[in-house]
Structure formats: structure tokens, C-alpha cells
Design goal:
Layout lengths: L7 H7 L3 H15 L4 H13 L1 H5 L2 H7 L12 H17 L5 H12 L2 E5 L6 H11 L3 E5 L3 H14 L5 E4 L12 E6 L1 H4 L11 E6 L10 H16 L4 E6 L7 H5 L8 E5 L6 E8 L4 E5 L3 H4 L4 E2 L4 H7 L4 E4 L2 H5 L2 H5 L1 H4 L8 H14 L12 H6 L3 E4 L5 H12 L5 E4 L13 E4 L7 H8 L13 E7 L3 H9 L19 H11 L3 E2 L4 E2 H6 L3 H14 L14 H22 L5 H18 L4 H12 L2 H10 L2 H6 L32 H35 L2 H12 L4 H8 L4 H7 L3 E4 L4 E3 L8 H7 L5
Parallel strand pairs: 1-6, 1-7, 2-4, 2-5, 3-4, 5-6, 8-15, 11-13, 11-14, 12-13, 14-15
Antiparallel strand pairs: 8-9, 9-10, 16-17, 18-19
Helix pairs in contact: 1-3, 2-3, 5-6, 7-8, 11-23, 18-20, 25-26, 26-31, 27-31, 28-31, 31-32
Length: about 775
């Protein structure tokens, strides 16, 4: 047994007592499995400092960890025992599962409801993908972020090549002539659509991945809990599986949703890890790194000075590092100065595939290619050197490009916020916690779980995690302390300080007073059909449509049109205020004003890139700057201040303050990247998730009452962005507006039954065909 005066890290580095250290780790690995963090540290240090010695034992280590998918060579009696266990698992379950994966599958097969937790490297997604592949009913996967939707879609698409299975990232009934079942990959927000079609679906399995979202102290946690309750009511025979990383009480999901723990419902915490990790502390003033162990009684009391910079070593060795930072440090560009040493190590990328991804991103966000001073994206300039920014306000399509960029090995440094916690498969060689949040221990553990790539090679994989010098003690405490989530649902909690509208929502879910067609409470749906509401709509429709029924695109270039624009905005504003049932605060008014403008630009078929450019032109006073440029008046131009542009915030919220996105910034300094992020937040989080439902319900109900076709068309514009049935069907099959432009000519006909293609399909590029191939027979 180790004494407190010993330092295993120093001894291993110096080559002392190697057999003793390995035997200590091997015995615990044999009896406990890969659950002891110190054991994995010892093995990682042996591989780092004594690769020749470790190579003699590496196959045994891989076998004892149960990593049978790596196909390690059987070279000892111990590895023979474990290899036989692996053969049993393969015979029983048909795959080279680890013992943990096999047990998860066994429990899922046996139970109606199963909740479990496991470290991020356990490979639960592999189990889930096989469950999805083997099912003969509809499957729903609920994930916390839209970015994770795309990762799941890619993985499921890889393993299911049967065109009789619809793999959809939205809820719809399509392709019914060809498809026999559906796989829906959804966020809690998108999952609301399930309940409209519950009588047409045969849902047998609902997988709640990253289910710790239910503990989030925000409106999103409330929506997650509401989906769980509604699934229980709408699909009572479906299996419900909850997966979490690291939490010590996975049974909390059963308790908070009033599920009795018995032979049909259970919970289990798995602690086995598939990769090892070593830990460093960084003195930012001197730049020196030290090794330290988590358990001082095993690894040694003292940290020891490292003889190399682990971040520099990773970049120079072709690896990648994740640097966890506050979002504000990305916005104010502090990350670029704070990590300049490492950024300077990243050379411009010449790989054509990487540069093609950069250009895809540029085209989508509307950034300039350096030929003019407007629409310049620093994000793209850094991306050309393998430096990735990843946070929740990056548009979904752009985020998907970044994740492909990283997974294909082009990323050297990724500056990320907490969005990377949410299970996205972007492992790194090194994780650096520039931001350490002791108050969010689960977030810390999730991020640390990104350190180390679990490869298919027959080797022991390990990664490195780095914290600042002052954070060693709290970091040790967080890593060792069990984490619990609440056993009480947000639906059952009181006095959470939410806006009264959310309290109404909670009550409607609990009392089954929720309208599935409109995704609103019954009370709201009734309110949105009131006389006060319907009186406003005809005037609004008269402004928006010509006498022949065609949609007017306002040029706003004369007084009459300016007045019409003001009246149109005011009508939308009044409709929302009636829905809310109270006056809006100044901040809420500013936010709604921005949202309505963006929503109407989308109604008028403006692309995301064009909307970003419109907002940039306004905020940066482009028209005024261009005029002063023509006069050669640089002095006056430099004095111009950015226009007021209210940054996105969630509404309703009476506690918000009113402020401008760019404050007192000079107009010529307005940041195009910030415009991109803010525009996406408005479109995704406010318009897509809330306002679209409200305004769709208003205009659709008005059509039902009045039979005014303009109201029906406007409701379609708000929900789909078009009123052309053919285009709506293409959107329902998962195409984007950008896709429709090239796909439309090769589609002969399209409806809920199928897509019929013409001979122009063969002229599409390989990339274009990949979008449509699941529907091509």
C-alpha cells in the first residue's frame, strides 16, 4: 500500500518500482474493473513515461477493461479469461460489447423503464444505435441540443441503410408508400410535435439521452420534464430509457416521474471508464505545468514539475486541444490574446476538404472573402488555421460544419462553452479548463470526459486535463464527489421564479389542458381566437397582401409604405401582447421588435445570410459610412456610433433590462460574427420555439373562422417560410431552402406517399444525391 510520502508519478517517470506500480493497478483492475481513477492515472503515466515497459502489459490491460471491440491479442492467462468473457457476450448479444454495454442492453430488454448513468467514454451511443437498428417499431431519441440531433442523424444513417426506415429530425408522416417505420431524433422542443400524430405512430422505444437536462434550472428543464410526462400519457406501452453521464442517483428520473421501482423499472450507476486520464496544473504567470494526482494518498501529496508543455506537445504532434472558456471571452476576443502562444502554433490549412468546409460556412453566414471591409468573420479566418469556436449561438448548420471539421481531424484548438457538455462526439487529446465552475460539478466532469479519444486500435487510450494552479483543491473535490440530480420534477416544484406564463404551462401539462395541434395551452388557444384578436387581423392582412392575393414585399421607400410598415409591426406587437395578457416592459418590447422584423424577413423569403447582412448594415450604419466615404470624411465616419440593436434574450421575462448589443461602440467596429450569433438566437430560440406557434395559431384559427385564404397562407409562411405546397413537402422531407433550389428540378412529384424523381436526378453531385438518396428507388 502506498505511503503518503511516496510520489507514484515521480517514481514512474524515473523508472523506479515499475513492477510494483503495475501490479497495484492490475489487481484493482482485475477485481473492480476500470472504475478507480488512480488506477487509470497509474496506467496512463506508465504508458506516457515508460512506453516500452507498458507495451509488454498493454494487451492484458485492454482485456481487463473489457474493451473487446479493440480485439487485443491474447498473451496471458488473465487475458484468456477475459477474452472468453468477450466471446460469451458476442454470442449472447451479437456484438463485441463491453461488459457495461452488455449489461445496459440486458436491462433495457428486460425493463419497461430503465435509468442509468455512465462516464462519457462508455459507448452508450453504440448500444442505442443498435437498439434503433434492430427495432421493428417507431423509435424516438430525445437529445438536449440541435447540434446533437445532427450527430445522431449521421450515426444512425450510417448503420441503417434500409430505405424502409424514415430517419427524421422532425416529427411528420411522410414517405408512407415506402417506409414501414420511423426513427425520430428530436430536442424536447421539437418533441412536442409527437403528440399531434400520436394516433398514427407506433412508438415502442423512447431514449432520453443526456437526461440530466431535466435538472437544468431553467425553462429548458421544465420543457424536458413536460415531454417525459406527456410521453408517459400518450405512449403508455413504450419503453422509456434515461441515460446520463456521471450522476450518482439515476433513480431520480423514476421518482420525479412517479414510476415505481420494481421488476419492470430500475436504475443503475456504471462507473467503468474506457480511457485513462492524467492531470496537470498550469501556472499562468510563469507558464509552468505540473503533474498532480487526484487521490493524494495513492498518487502522492506533492505535484511535480512537468518537463514539457502538454498543450504545445499535443498541437505539434498533430493532436487537438479543447479550451473551455466563458462565452464572453469569445465575444470580447480575450481568448485570442490569452492563448496566443498556442494559436501561433497553428499553421494555415492547405487540405482541400478542410478549405471546402470553410467555404461552405462562409457561403451560409454571408461573410465576405476579404474583398471588402463589411461582413468580415474572424471566426472563419481562424478556422482556416484549424481554430474552432463552439458555442450555443453558432447557427446549427454552421455548427454541424464545425463538428465535421473537427471529427475529420482538421481542428487543432477548439474554444468551447458549455454546449460541448451535451454529449457531442468531439473528443480531444487535451482539455484545458480556462473556466472552472465549482458550482457546476456535472459540467466539469462532462468536459473532462472529452479528454482522451477511445479509438478502435488495440491500445490503452488516455488523455490529459489541465486546470489553473489555484483550482487544484476544488478540482480534486469535484472529481471525487458524487453528483445527484433532483428527485422532484420542475412540474411539481413551486416558487421557481418563472414568468406567470410558464406557471400556466406547468398547470396545463399536469391537468391535461394542452392543445397538441397548436403546441399551446387550451386557455391560450381560446384566447387567440377572441374577438379582440380577430379585429386586428383583417387590417394586417390588407397591409401584407395585394388585392390579387399576392404577398407584398415592402420597399419602405416612401412615406406611405413607412406608415404601413409601422402599422404592420404594431399589429404583430398588439397580437403578442394580447396573448401575454399584460403590458410589455421596455426590454421585452425591444426584443419583440427585433424578433418581428426577423420573422417577417423570413416570411419574405430572405436567407439567413441576407438577414445577417441587413442587421449588420443597420447596426454599423453602413449607409451613413458609405456616404462619408464618398465625401472622403474619415473623421466624421470614425465618430459614428453603432445603432441600437437589442441583443436576444428569452421573453416573456419582466426582469430584463434594456441595452444595445454594441453599446457605445463606434459603428465601424461592429462585429459581424456577433450579428450572426444574435440573429440565430432570435430565429432558433424565440421565433422557432415560441413566436411561430403563437402567430400560427392566431392566423390558422382566423382562417378556420373566416375562410380568408390570406390568413391560411400567412400561417404557412410563419410555420414553413413558404406557402407553396410543393416547397412545403420538400421541407417536410427534410430539405432546406438552400437544398430546394437545386433539388426542385429533379423532383417530378412529391406528397406524403413518396417522392418521384425524374432523369435530372442523375445529374446531381454526389453531395446533393446524399441528401435525397434515402427517398430514391
Amino acid at each position: 500500500m502506498a505511503t503518503k510520502s511516496r510520489n507514484r508519478i515521480a517514481e514512474i517517470r524515473e523508472g523506479r518500482n515499475l513492477d510494483e506500480h503495475f501490479v497495484y493497478a492490475r489487481e484493482r483492475l482485475f477485481t473492480e474493473g476500470s472504475i478507480n481513477i488512480s488506477v487509470l492515472e497509474i496506467l496512463s503515466y506508465l504508458k506516457l513515461f515508460q512506453p516500452g515497459f507498458f507495451a509488454e502489459h498493454e494487451n492484458d490491460v485492454v482485456e481487463m477493461m473489457g474493451l473487446f471491440y479493440k480485439k487485443p491479442k491474447v498473451e496471458s492467462f488473465i487475458s484468456l479469461i477475459f477474452a472468453d468473457y468477450g466471446k460469451y457476450i458476442q454470442a449472447e448479444f451479437g456484438e463485441e460489447y463491453t461488459p457495461v454495454q452488455a449489461d445496459i442492453l440486458k436491462k433495457i430488454r428486460k425493463m419497461q423503464t430503465f435509468s442509468f448513468s455512465a462516464p462519457t467514454s462508455t459507448g452508450k451511443s453504440f448500444v442505442f444505435r443498435n437498439l434503433i437498428k434492430d427495432a421493428d417499431y417507431d423509435v424516438v431519441v430525445i437529445v438536449p441540443s440541435r447540434a446533437l440531433i445532427n450527430e445522431y442523424y449521421d450515426r444512425v444513417h450510417e448503420i441503417i441503410d434500409d430505405k424502409a426506415v424514415n430517419i427524421l429530425t422532425f416529427v411528420d408522416i411522410i414517405n408512407i408508400k415506402r417506409a414501414k417505420r420511423n426513427v425520430f431524433i428530436l430536442t424536447p422542443e421539437r418533441a412536442r410535435e409527437l403528440f399531434k400524430l400520436k394516433d398514427k405512430l407506433n412508438i415502442g422505444l423512447v431514449l432520453f439521452d443526456e437526461a440530466q437536462l431535466s435538472d437544468e434550472g431553467s425553462v429548458r428543464g421544465l420543457y424536458f420534464d413536460s415531454i417525459v410526462r406527456r410521453v408517459q400519457k400518450a405512449f403508455p406501452t413504450a419503453k422509456c430509457i434515461f441515460a446520463h453521464p456521471f450522476i450518482a442517483n439515476p433513480e431520480a428520473q423514476l421518482k420525479k416521474n412517479h414510476v415505481d421501482i420494481d421488476e419492470n423499472a430500475g436504475a443503475l450507476q456504471y462507473e467503468q471508464k474506457n480511457v485513462g486520464q492524467i492531470f496537470y496544473t498550469h501556472d499562468t504567470s510563469s507558464g509552468v505545468f505540473h503533474h498532480f494526482g487526484i487521490d493524494k494518498s495513492v498518487m502522492g501529496e506533492r505535484k511535480i514539475k512537468a518537463r514539457f508543455d502538454p498543450m504545445e506537445k499535443a498541437i505539434k504532434g498533430g493532436g487537438s486541444i479543447l479550451i473551455y472558456v466563458p462565452k464572453q471571452h469569445i465575444y470580447n476576443e480575450q481568448v485570442y490574446s490569452g492563448f496566443k502562444k498556442y494559436i501561433d502554433l497553428c499553421q494555415p490549412i492547405s487540405d482541400p476538404e478542410a478549405l471546402e468546409l470553410v467555404e461552405k460556412m462562409r457561403d451560409y453566414v454571408g461573410a465576405s472573402n476579404g474583398k471588402n471591409e463589411n461582413y468580415i468573420s474572424k471566426t472563419l479566418e481562424y478556422l482556416k488555421r484549424g481554430i474552432v469556436l463552439h458555442h450555443g449561438s453558432i447557427p446549427l448548420r454552421a455548427r454541424l460544419i464545425l463538428e465535421h471539421f473537427t471529427q475529420q481531424g482538421f481542428c487543432r484548438i477548439c474554444f468551447a462553452t458549455s454546449t460541448l457538455e451535451q454529449g457531442i462526439n468531439m473528443p480531444f487529446d487535451v482539455v484545458y479548463l480556462d473556466r472552472f465552475e465549482r458550482s457546476k460539478p456535472l459540467s466539469v466532469k462532462n468536459l473532462i470526459g472529452r479528454a482522451g479519444r477511445s479509438t478502435l486500435n488495440d491500445i490503452f487510450d488516455f488523455g490529459a486535463a489541465i486546470v489553473k494552479k489555484d483550482n487544484i483543491s476544488p478540482f480534486r473535490s469535484v472529481i471525487k464527489k458524487p453528483e445527484n440530480i433532483s428527485e422532484k420534477s420542475h412540474l411539481d416544484k413551486e416558487n421557481e421564479g418563472l414568468d406567470p406564463k410558464y406557471e400556466e404551462f406547468k398547470e396545463a401539462i399536469k391537468t391535461d389542458q394542452f392543445n397538441d395541434e397548436y403546441n399551446l395551452t387550451n386557455n391560450d388557444v381560446e384566447k387567440l381566437a377572441s374577438d379582440d384578436i380577430t379585429e386586428i387581423i383583417p387590417t394586417l392582412l390588407d397591409i401584407m397582401f395585394n388585392e390579387d392575393g399576392s404577398l407584398i414585399y415592402p420597399r419602405w421607400d416612401n412615406n406611405e409604405e413607412v406608415n404601413d410598415r409601422k402599422a404592420m409591426y404594431q399589429d404583430f406587437y398588439s397580437l403578442y401582447q394580447m396573448y401575454l395578457g399584460r403590458e410589455l416592459t421596455a426590454a421585452e418590447k425591444s426584443i419583440l421588435n427585433q424578433a418581428i422584423k426577423i420573422m417577417l424577413w423570413r416570411v419574405y423569403k430572405k436567407t439567413f445570410s441576407l438577414i445577417c447582412q441587413y442587421r449588420f448594415d443597420y447596426a454599423s450604419r453602413k449607409k451613413d459610412r458609405d456616404a462619408l466615404d464618398r465625401q472622403g470624411n474619415e473623421e466624421e465616419k470614425s465618430k459614428l456610433k453603432a445603432q441600437f440593436l437589442r441583443e436576444y434574450d428569452d421573453i416573456p421575462d419582466m426582469k430584463l433590462h434594456n441595452y444595445s448589443l454594441f453599446g457605445d461602440m463606434p459603428a465601424e467596429k461592429v462585429d459581424y460574427d456577433r450579428i450572426i450569433y444574435d440573429t440565430y438566437d432570435y430565429l432558433d430560440k424565440l421565433i422557432g420555439f415560441k413566436l411561430a406557434d403563437i402567430f400560427y395559431a392566431i392566423f390558422h384559427q382566423y382562417y378556420e373562422f373566416s375562410k380568408d385564404l390570406r390568413a391560411l397562407r400567412l400561417s404557412k409562411y410563419i410555420r414553413f417560410g413558404t406557402d407553396v405546397e410543393r416547397e412545403i413537402w420538400m421541407l417536410r422531407y427534410g430539405l432546406t431552402f438552400e437544398d430546394i433550389e437545386w433539388a426542385a428540378p429533379c423532383i417530378e412529384s412529391i406528397d406524403e406517399q413518396e417522392i418521384v424523381f425524374n432523369e435530372k436526378y442523375d445529374e446531381l453531385t454526389k453531395e446533393q444525391r446524399a441528401v435525397l438518396e434515402r427517398f430514391h428507388y
